[in-house]
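pls read this stuff:
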Amino acid sequence: MATSKIIFGAGCFWGVEAAFRRIRGVTNVTCGYSGGHSEHPTYEAVCSNTTGHIEVVLVEYDSAAVSLETLLEHFWNCHNPTTQDRQGYDVGTQYRSVIFFFTPEQETIAQASMHQLQQSGRWQDAVVTKILPAAQFYVAEEYHQNYFNKHGIH
């Protein structure tokens, strides 16, 4: 199995995690924090908008079973990539749209995917998603992991 990984930020990580867990070929999804300036952030600190961190999910996948392009389609479909620091009722810098890539190939594919989305006319407003090199990933507290399943939300 050729395992790859990528990090997505698309609003509250509970729903994003649940969306990616359903994809065949995804081997693991972990809620966490990334992109900020403080070490070992907590949920409360991230929600205070003082750490610079984003609620993200680390998606590990079998690249022979699912393509990055497919994962990106799911990413674009699970949130509104045109809203800055907001997804639905969730407002704050921790909810910004971001893709953290690990390889130059991932960066190229993500940039092309974002360009294609912007050109499609699906969104009237400009896509504000940032595509950045992977930053330090901090695993979120256990009660955030697999949240929907733990609480019977499907």
User: Anything to note?
Assistant: The domain at 3-150 is CATH 3.30.1060.10 (Peptide Methionine Sulfoxide Reductase; Chain A). The helical segments are 13-21, 43-47, 68-77, 104-120, 147-150. The first strand starts at residue 3 and ends at 9. The two ends are 29 Å apart (CA to CA).
